[in-house]
Design brief:
This is Growth arrest and DNA damage-inducible protein GADD45 gamma. The protein is an alpha/beta fold. Helices cover 52% and strands 13% of the residues. The protein has five helices and five strands; from the N terminus they run αβαβαβαβαβ.
Length: 159
């Protein structure tokens, strides 16, 4: 088997991308768990939209979640488009997660009743609350934007 330098670099870049996405997934899980413990999360499309409308400076990070079941939900996709535009206008990092069940488990574990709407989750930018995972995710988003991936998709680690 003979490979060109471009092919070798392409494989190396692909592996680096996989490592970056896995690392970002672990950081996102860490951030959500820490923010939930501090009661810093806003969960749900409408709840998130209210927070962003009232105080966009209080938001540090936005997670949009969907899966195949919701891809045809036009109303949800319109909300996502509006939320993304708002986040871009207010310098709020945005990522997508394709495993809504896993995300819902992370943000509503232990709560009784119906599972929460986990389609949109906001993490605060409260001044006293600094988390290394938030810094990792911010860097991941910045690196993604540098290659024109405006809303990168993150895969959460397996349970």
């Amino acid at each position: 088997i003979t490979m060109t330098l471009e092919e070798i670099r392409g494989q190396e870049n692909a592996m680096e991308h996989v490592d970056r996405v896995q690392s970002a997934g672990a950081a996102l899980q860490e951030l959500l768990v820490a923010a939930k413990k501090q009661e810093y999360l806003t969960v749900g499309v409408y709840e998130s939209a209210k927070v962003m409308n009232v105080d966009p400076d209080s938001v540090a990070f936005c997670v949009l979640a969907t899966d195949e079941e919701y891809e045809c939900d036009i109303a949800l996709q319109i909300h996502f488009t509006l939320i993304q535009a708002f986040c871009f206008d207010n310098d709020i990092n945005v990522v997508r997660v394709n495993d809504i069940e896993r995300l819902a488990d992370l943000v509503s574990a232990g709560e009784s009743g119906e599972p929460k709407d986990a389609h949109c989750i906001l993490s605060p930018s409260a001044n006293p609350w600094k988390d290394p995972a938030l810094d990792k995710l911010s860097l991941f988003c910045e690196e993604s934007r540098s290659v024109y991936d405006w809303v990168p998709t993150i895969t959460l680690p397996e349970r």
